[in-house]
Each structure stands twice: as structure tokens, then as C-alpha cells.
Amino acid sequence: MDGAAPLFRMEGISKRYGGVRALEKAELTVEAGSIHAILGENGAGKSTLIKVMAGVVAPDEGRMMLDGREVTFASPGAANKAGIVCIFQELSLIPELSVADNIVISDPPKRFGMIDRKAQRRIAEDALARAGAADIHPLALVKDLPLSRRQMVEIAKALARKPRILILDEATSALTAADVSKIFAVLKRLRSEGLALLYISHRMNEIAELADHCTVFRNGRNVASYKAGSKSDNEVVELMIGREYSHIFPPKPPAAAANAAPRLEARKLSWADRLDNISLTVRAGEVVGLGGLDGQGQRELLLAFFGVLRGLSGEVLIDGKPVTITSPAAAREDGIGMALIPEDRKTEGLMLPMTVRENLSFAALDRLSKGGIIDRATEQRLIDDMVGLLAIKTAGLDIPVGALSGGNQQKVVIAKWLMRQPRIILLNDPTRGIDVGTKQEIYQLMRKLADAGAAILFYSTDYDELIGCCDRVLVLYDGAVKRELVGAEITERALISSALNIHGEESPVGLGAEA
Amino acid sequence: MSETTLGGIAGRMPKFIRRADPAVLTAFACIVVLLLVGSLYSRSFLSPEYLLQQLKVASFLGVIATGMMLVILLGQIDLSVPWSVAAGAMMACAAAAYGPAGVVLAIPFGIFCGVLIGVVNGIGVAYLRIPSMIITLATNAVAQGLMVVYTGGFSPQDSATGAMRYLATGFTIPGVPNAVIIWALIGAAMVFVLTRSGFGRAVYGIGNRERAAYLSGIDTRRVVMIAFAVSGGLSAFGGVLLAGYASKAAQSMGDAYLLPSIAAVVLGGTSILGGRGSYLGTVAGVILITLLQSILSVMQMPEAGRQIIYGVVIVAMLLLYGRAPASR
Amino acid sequence: MKDWRYWLAEQRGTLLALGIFIVMFVIYTSNHPAGFTANVVQTAANKGVLLAFVAMAQTLVVITSGIDLSVGMIFLLTNCLASWLVVGTPMQTTLGVIAVLAAGLLCGAINGAIVIYGRLQPIVATIATGAVYYGVGLLLRPFPGGSVNEDLADAMTGRFFDLVPASLVVLLAVVLLIWVPFSRSVLGRAAYAAGSSETAAYMSGVPIRRGKFAAYTLAGLLAAIGGLFLTFFTYTGEAAYASGNAYTLFSIAAVVLGGVSLFGGKGSAIGAIFGALAFRTIGDLLFVFDFDPLWQPLFQGVILLVAVSLGAFALFRVRNRLEWFL
């Protein structure tokens, strides 16, 4: 690095969410006139890092320097004023307003106190042209644009704010190939204009083409920083892997239920543009993992099985018989016996202000009732069983479930479904944001349930878990199953390289990949 | 206030206090204050006869507020109360004009009409997902239109049946008006449903987080639908009782019950956002509102002053404990 | 360029309401015994503008994805107030008009403050404030009565150049002086943005609270202009509970007919005006076709029910059922 003060520097930044470390003494230096790529697995701390930079979250410790002067940002607006503009994954566009309205939203041009629509239009056209999206009409409503166009508007909106540092967090994830090349041209031009660009992407080829400099994050720390092109893909993957702790996983049975009858099957399941011809089988006694980068259709697949999605095409079979499940109520019925541990326990799994008791029995009320009246003795007995089985730590059954720790809340979510003795269990990233001890218990429990004959479909963003828990793993990419890994094939290297859709040493199984 | 501290404090308190919402205690405290204030104006304010009379008046509001509470627990609202009340009263009286069979069927028919209004509300809210305040305003307008057409714009001429009068003004147990007994029975049923039945749990669950309730396999739409139907039915039954009390129905008899029924529920500590509240609180709210009305009339406060005081009291109480969380 | 297409798409709700209104009005005047005369238009305009003002008021609040169930009562209150104050010399009359409008602004500001800074649900808050406003109105006019500066009233309800109804001219002026500046101001845009997606608006640094507050406050002002006109037509003030409720209800119907989304962020007060005029014409149609006026409330109720149900069609496009619960 040069002798002059860098444009922007972060030193010793740490951030914790509850008990979970998101960032641990992270450092980053950003130079003007360069494109800096940030790499790392899911949960390596990349998003927290840029949230700190963009003023969305405040760091617990550490300092940030802009032009060599220490700065703090109280809000995204403050960071914007300092010249740091971030394009987040979740869009910040207002659907009912026009493209031009959105581009100037933070600081519209004014004339006689009113918004100057002509000037606004000029600014918008200019910004769209700079973003290489002149095909988007400034008067079009954002809600009428497809996702890829919205992403371009988002980029134009960022450019209109005249940033010095522009952060792109997976900004190309929804774009078409043509757009990506346009954006790349724009980004290269911005670099030549002296902007600093921070680029976060999982697509290795993009990084190879764009980046001047790369920093790899792992477990909330920057573990390596190198000049782009100085390391091979495999070396990069190597840097991203490698953890300081490893979990203790329950032993897998030798020939994991390979001969058991298929319990849950999907045949050519497609939905909207999120699921693409997915076929899979889960047998009784088997734990099947869903891998891949976050947001490749794993959540939608679980929701599709659980009867939440409308307009599915393809077939779902339970015990070899085709079924049509149109609601969670139908999915939990006796003949099907499905349970879903949902993505967000606070909004989808639990009613936080309600008591532990009420939450535990909520999915099994029909079983606990006679003539619509809850049989309190049965309820108490089953709840006691569950609290014992999962070792739920709570001060009592009649306190709000929101008062429990994250791990115990998650146990309540699982327990409330186990009260129905489900035959098929779908888990959507059940260990996210909970402590290591509880994670171990959940791994043990999963295996125990499988051994007792349940069919388990398990989505996790943590590759260690997939390796440790699953008999088979299906890696999804762009809504399609790109690869199936069985037994000893499930390695971190194989998981990451197939998740990034780069071909590792093993050849991919082209399941449903013909789209 | 974070859930953790809430749970921590609650866990250390004796059970009966832990179960009692501060809002319910506040409401009961306000009742005591009102009684004291009232007794300053008039000696007879604390006499058993007067209090019993208040309870009787309160029971009409109590029946209507019971239905309102069920809907508010879901996080919805029922603005069709005015004409559900009126339709129940008018249709019951109208049925009475059709010979002996009509007399027998008067009360069920009145309630049935209310249920019908509630079912339309329920379909709109649960299946068409129209905001409840809009659809219930619309059904209120339709019910009003139907009643206006039916009565020809005049005060309805049919009188209440003997049974209706007996329910509203008679005595089965000496000293205890029947209306009070009816409210007590409906209230007991409501408490039982809310605390002991799967339906009641589902109502609280939906009010807290409909998404989580749906993903738990609850047929949330059916529950919402039933709740609105019950609300409509109870409003109409309230109307039937009111018609019995006044011996006949009147055009705008329900108007005076919309704001008080919402106020009673909300002042009793039921969250307007749904999911939280106890029937005990609603009882307190109903008595509180009734006493407030009574004192204002003892003070010979004109209608204008009553409306102003209502509105101000409700806004003030809501600002005290009915606010939405500070940040998103 | 195809700018006009985007303009058309944006104004679709408004134009549809305009279309409905024109069709109804043509049917109305062609069946009216007097036909399309200045008199008929004047009478229709005078009836229509009352609801138009209240509907504009409702639009402002609905755009922020709120609702104001007290508009009808502000309308009554200002009517009662005007029947005391808008009298006497031109100077006194002017001051009276200003006072009435200020009262409307105050009512709106109270609603806004309670909803935005007090963080209460708009629906309960405005029902309660509505009771207060009605109470104040009743206090001012326990019995119908009072008077108004008749010269002003006649001028406002008469015709300019014996042709154009004065009330329509005032309506146009209000649109140009209040609605257009608001909708093109930063605050107006903030109101739209907050109604459409409060999170996105927050992330973009939009002044959400000030925008909403401005919307509620101006809604009070518009309702007060309506109240003023009611006084000009009736020469009296009257605190009629049923009438206040009816105006609140009809304002919602007019807003829906005018293409304003009840979920916020979309629509124009001009659409709501046409919605209001169309809604009023429905009543007049029943009259020219010799329907029993008794059927009018039912007819209006059914129209409202159908209008609010139309919005539900968007539901069938939802492909992820979890979106029902957002």
C-alpha cells in the first residue's frame, strides 16, 4: 500500500448480536480509484461490515477513518453525506413512485418550494445513463419493473448521490448477463473517475474480472488480503474454509436408510422464477441437507412442500402417492404428517408475547382437544414430555416465550411440532443465531428423530452442519439442484465449489440442471 | 420494554398479580374513583338499587362489547355494530308480527340477521383480505340501507315480544335483573372459550402473529370468519335486548354503541393491535363506561359534553397504555 | 416519446372515475325534465362539492396508508362554527372564514399529532377525536340554527357570468392552491412514500413523520372548507350525528371510486373528487328514474361494498400465501 493516508480505513471493528460475534476486530482499507472485493462464506461477517460502514449499525468497538480523520455515522443519511453510499440486497425503492421520483428521493431538486419535475427528470435520465440503464423510462413506476430493472434503478439512485465510496452488496444477484456487463463497464469507469468501490459477490468470475484487491473474511475477521489474480480459485476456497471450532456431531448410521421406502418425493417441482424443475427423494430415517448459497430457492422449496406456495407445477408424493397440499393445515394432517421449522422463529415460529405453554401446544391444539375444549391434563403431560425431551430451560410454563434465550426459543419451535409426532420434518436453517450448546442438542435430536423413522429435509447456511448431520446433500443454485453429494462426498470443498457453481474435482450430478 | 425484563419481573410476582394486566387494575381503580365522585353528587349513587340499575344498563353494552372484544383480539375491528344492533332489534320485532311462530322465532331470527352481517364481514376480512374497518363500514351501510327500505324511513311500528321484554327487564332470580344474568352467562361462555378452547387459543395466536398461526397449521381464515359472525350475532342480540328494554326498536338505536363498545374493550386493556387482553378487563371497561355515562347524566351534562369527555378519556387512556412500539 | 402512456397509466384511476362520472351525469341530465341547463349543473355542483372536499381530505390521509374517521365530524364542527362566525361586515366575515379554516387545521393537526407522535392506531384515534369534534359542534349548535353572511353565501353557491357554478370554481382553486402544491412538495412525496413502503422511505432518508403530519393537517383544512360550503348552502349550522357519519363513510367510498388505494401510496385527490361527484350522481339518478328515495342508502351501501371488494382481486395474483399476512 502507498504511503499516503488511504481514503477509508476501519480498525478493530467488533460487533456482537446477543451472544453471537458477527465481527471480531475486523480491519479494512479502501483506496480511491480501486475496486475492492470482499469474499467469505455465509455469516462470515461481510454484511455486518458494510452495515457498519453505511451507518446502519453502530460497532461495539473500533474506529473508522475517512481521509485520515476519525468519523462516526449515526444513520444511513450521515454516511451518505460523508460520501459513502451502499446498495443493499434488500431494495430501498418505493414501489408506488416513479423511477425518477425514487432516484432523487433523498434530496429532490426544488423550484419555488415545489419539486422541480423537469430538473428531477434530467437528474434521473443522467443517473440512468451513467448506470447504463438508459432503457428504463424515468416515468415508469418502480412496482411495474422486473427485479433486474429495479436493481439497475437502485444503482442509478446510488450514483445520483455522488458517492466517493460505493458499496455493492450482491448487487448483481438479480441481473441478467447483459446488465452485468453494462454494470461492469460503469464500475470500471467510476474507478477511473477516482471512486472507491467495495464489491461483495459470490460469483468468482465477476471478482476475477473486476477486482483490483480482495479481502477474505472468515468468522468475523479479515483473514487474508491479496492482489486480485494472485491466488487460484481453489486457494481462495481454502481461505474461506477452515474454522477454529468444530462441532461434535452424532455418528451417522453406516448405510443410512438407503433401502427404506421414499417418504417425501418431488418430481419436477417449479414455482415462479424461484424453483426450477426440482426432483428429490427423502426416505424414512434419512437426513437430507439442502446446501448452496443463501437465497437459491431453498426456503421456497420448503414452503412449497408445506403448502404455502400457489401455482406450483410438478408433483409432490408422500409414501409414493401423489398429494396436493394447499395449506399448512393440510400438511400437518395425519396422512401426511409434515412439520416445518420456519425461517424466522420470532415472526413465523412463535407468538413471542404468549406463554411457553400456549406456544408449545399451538400446533397440536386439535390433538389436545375434545370437542374443541383443550384437555388440560393431556396438554400438561405432553408439554412436560417435550420440556424434558428437549431440555428446555425456562423459569416456568406461564411466562412469555419471548423471555427465553434464542436457543430455548428455537427448542420451543421444534418441540411444538414434535408434539404431533411428525413423519416428515422440514427445517429451515434452525441453528441460525443460537448458541453452540443448543446447536449440538439439535444435531443429536435430528439424528434421533431420523433413527425413529422420520424423514428429515434440512436447510442450513452452515456448511459444517451439512457435513456433520446429513446423509445426503442437494446443492441448489438459482432454484435448481446443481449437485447431489452422498456420504463421504460431502466435504466443505465440494459444498463451496458447487455452491459457487465452479466445477471442482468431482463432476456435478446434472439433476434438473437442464433448464 | 423488552420481553426479557417483562418475563423476569413477571416470573417473580405472585400469580394473581402476574395474571392481572396493569390496564385492568387501572380500569378498576377508575371505577372506584368514579363511584366516589358520583357519591359526592348524589347520596343514592352508592345504594344497591342504583348500582344494580347501572349493572343492568351495562349488560346491554357488555353483550355487544363481548363480540367487539373477540374481533379486536384478532387485531381487527367491527364498525358494523350500529346497524347490526339496529337490524337485530328491528328484525326480531318484525318477526314478532308474523303470528305465534314469529313470536317464538323472533329472538333467533334477530340474532341470525346479525350473524349474517358478521359472515359478510368475515368473508371480506378473512378471504378477500379487505381491511376490516373498510368492509365493516360498508356492511354497516348496506345493513342501514336494508333497514331503511324495510321500515320505509319511519320508526318501526312492531313491538318487542314478551320474551324479549322478559329477558331485558324481567327477574328470574329476585333482585337480579335478567339482563345481568344474560351478560354473566355470555361472559362466562366467552371466558371459557378464550381460556379453555382451541378456538380461543387460535384467536390470541392470530392476534399476536397471524403468520406464525398460519404456519402452525391453524385455519386462520375460518377462525377470523367465525369471530366476525359471533360479533355480528352478539351485536344483534344486544339489539334484541335493547328492543325488549324499550319495548320496540328504533332507527338509530345502535349509533350510541359503536364508540362505547370499542372504548370499553380498549380501556379494559385489550390491545387494539390484537393478541392481548382479558375478558375481566372488558367487564371493567364496560362498567367504567356505563358509570361515566351515568355520572355525566347525574351531573346533567349535555350530550355535547359527554361526547367530548368520552373522546378525551379514550385518547388519554390509549396514550397511557395503548401505544405502538417506539421504533420499527 | 411515449411519456403520455406513463402519464395515462398514472392517471388511470382518476380518468376512470372521470369516465364513470361523465357517463352517469349524461344519463342524469338527459333524463332530467329540465335537461342540461346551467341550473341543473349548478344544483348538482353544489351538492357534489361538499362531498368532494371531504373526499379530498380523506385522500390525503389514505395516501399515507392511514384513515381519518373524523373527517365528517370536522365537517360538522366547522359548519357549526361558521354559522356563528361567518357573519357581519365583510371584514368580520373574512376573519370568520379564516377562523373556521384555522379550526379545521387545528383538528387535523390534533389527529396527526395523536397518530404520528402519540403512535396510536389512526382508526381508534380518529373515532375518538371524531367524538370530541362532534361534541364541540353540538356545544356550538345544540339545535340547528345560526346564520351566515348571505351575500357571500349566495356568491359562493351562485354562478359566475351566469354560467359557471361558483362552487366548482372554488373547488378548482382549492385543487390548484392546496392539492397540487402539496402533491409536488417534498412533504407530499414523503406522504406518498410513507404510504407505499415505510421501510424503504426510512432507508432513503425521507421525512416520514413531517409528511404524514402535513397530510393529516391539510385534511382538516379541506374538511373545514367543506364545512364552510355546507354553511353557505344551508345558511345554518347543525350538528347532525348521522350526517357526519354519512360524510365520513361516503368519503371512503369516493376515495375508492376515485382510484385511491386504501393501502396507501397511490392515487390522487382529483380522482377522489370525480369519485365524489360520481357517488353523488348515483343518488340523483335514483331521483330522475323515480326510484323511491328510500332505496338510496341501500344503493349507496351496495356501491361501497362492491367498490371495496374490487381491490381484493389483486389477492389472486399472490403466489406465496405468506404474503397475505404482511
Distance between the ends of chain C: 38 Å
Give Rg of chain A in angstroms: 25 Å
The number of strands of chain C is 2
Number of helices of chain C: 14
The greatest interface between two protein chains, and residues involved on each side, is:
B-C, 57 and 55 residues
State the low-pLDDT regions of chain A, or none. 504-515
What is the approximate shape of chain A? Answer: globular
Describe this structure in words.
The complex is a heterotrimer of chains A (515), B (328) and C (326). With 515 residues, chain A is of the alpha/beta class. In chain A, helix 4 (117-130) crosses helix 5 (147-160). Chain A is globular, with a radius of gyration of 25 Å. Chain A folds into three domains: 8-240, Rossmann fold, CATH 3.40.50; 260-337 and 422-515, 3-Layer(aba) Sandwich (Rossmann fold); 346-420, no CATH class. Chain B is mostly helical and 328 residues long. Chain B has a single domain (21-321), classed as ABC transporter involved in vitamin B12 uptake, BtuC (Orthogonal Bundle). Helices cover 75% and strands 2% of the residues of chain B. In chain B, helix 3 runs parallel beside helix 14, helix 4 packs parallel to helix 9 (178-196) and helix 10 (198-208) crosses helix 12 (220-246). Chain B starts with a helix and ends in a 7-residue tail after the last helix. Chain C has 326 residues and is mainly α. Chain C has a single domain, classed as ABC transporter involved in vitamin B12 uptake, BtuC, CATH 1.10.3470. Helix content of chain C is 73%, strand content 1%. Chain C contains 14 helices and two strands, in the order αααααααββααααααα. In chain C, strands 1-2 form a two-stranded antiparallel sheet. In chain C, helix 3 (38-63) runs antiparallel to helix 11 (208-234) and helix 4 packs antiparallel against helix 5. The longest helix of chain C is centred in the first third of the chain and has 28 residues, at 90-117. The radius of gyration of chain C is 20 Å and the shape is globular. The relative contact order of chain C is 0.19. Classes of the chains: A alpha/beta (515), B mainly alpha (328), C mainly alpha (326). At the B-C interface, helix 7, helix 11, helix 13 and helix 15 of B face helix 6, helix 10, helix 12 and helix 14 of C.
Short summary:
Chain B is mostly helical and 328 residues long. In chain B, 75% of the residues lie in helices and 2% in strands.
